[in-house]
What we know:
Elements: H1 3-30, H2 38-43, H3 48-67, H4 76-100
Helix pairs in contact: 1-3, 1-4
Amino acid sequence: MHDKVLAALLSLTALLNIADYIFTLRAVHVLGKPEANPVIDSILHTPWFPIYKVIFVPLCICFLWYVRDKVRYTRLIPLGAAVSFAVYAVLTGWHIYMQFFT
């Protein structure tokens, strides 16, 4: 995978992560919906939730970009980026559907 495609995937994943953060807060605090992810639910009402979503996830994305040419299994990085993007894209679509069309 070329660097431009990988950069686009990682950037879009970071944007979708922020969208997930905003949609999660809206769903829980405005719409009164429960959090479906038990791990996130355990930190949702603590300072760890924004730290995780706004700091930790983007740092992991930056780490993937940094090590893209330095690790032994370089094919795993684009695969991980593609899977992460796909998961966040489906999750964002789910948020939009559940919050605006149901």
